[in-house]
Amino acid sequence: MSYTVGQVAGFAGVTVRTLHHYDEIGLLVPGERSHAGHRRYSDADLDRLQQILFYRELGFPLDEVAVLLDDPAADPRAHLRRQHDLLTARIEQLRKMAAAVEHAMEARTMGIDLTPEEKFEVFGDKDPEQYADEAEARWGGTEHYAESQRRVARYSKEDWQRIQDRSADWGRRYAALMAAGEPPTGEAAMALAEEHRRHICTWYYECPHELHRRLGEMYVADERFKAFYESLRPGLAEHLNEAIAANAARHTS
């Protein structure tokens, strides 16, 4: 079985020009040619292309990819193990970055008063000032904003670490709930949605169920909040929004 350059480009999500370039530099030379001289790719060629794209996604220069793949002592399984380790580390790094952005938004929104060193220690390498203007425009005149500023002004670094740890624990449990196939309208999901609401009440401001429902909608509508929840588990933002809505409905009906 062999494939045309157009078919392979479609399979892999790359351009025909990219495949031509890989051929020209000797990185991926098609194993066959048609009678008319057109490139034909075998299953082995597709396996090599998959390896190339994995390494390219991980940031390896193409010349280094060629060296890695052409090493006669290399076991194909060793490539997969190396790529799995690198991808796992990258996923964890991206999750931490997403959490840092979420905490950075909350930091300025809630008026956290920490030293610069503490801000970066607690919230990672993202600038907690980044969303200051938006937060002020969005919530600056509300009672909830004022209340949150009064509360968090008293928090120490240890308080913020406690908040972060509890949030992380909640996120792990919600992801596990989804992995177990629990529906958003089920008792378990609504219980975690209620825990989410009470966390806001405890640390930031009084959050009635109707306000919590609007927050759930924002977690889906605002790409930055959505990215944070999706980093915990794909689909979590939508699942949580539905759980919050169901929990609000049963407490307000």
Automatic annotation (TrEMBL):
**Name of the protein in question:** MerR family transcriptional regulator
Residue ranges annotated for the HTH merR-type domain, each copy included: 1-71
Under InterPro entries, the record lists: DNA-bd_dom_put_sf, MerR-type_HTH_dom, MerR_fam, TipA-like_antibiotic-bd, TipAS_dom
Q: Domain of life here?
A: Bacteria
Per the UniProt record, the source organism is Streptomyces levis
Q: Does the keyword Transcription apply?
A: yes
Q: Which keywords label this protein? A: Activator, DNA-binding, Transcription, Transcription regulation
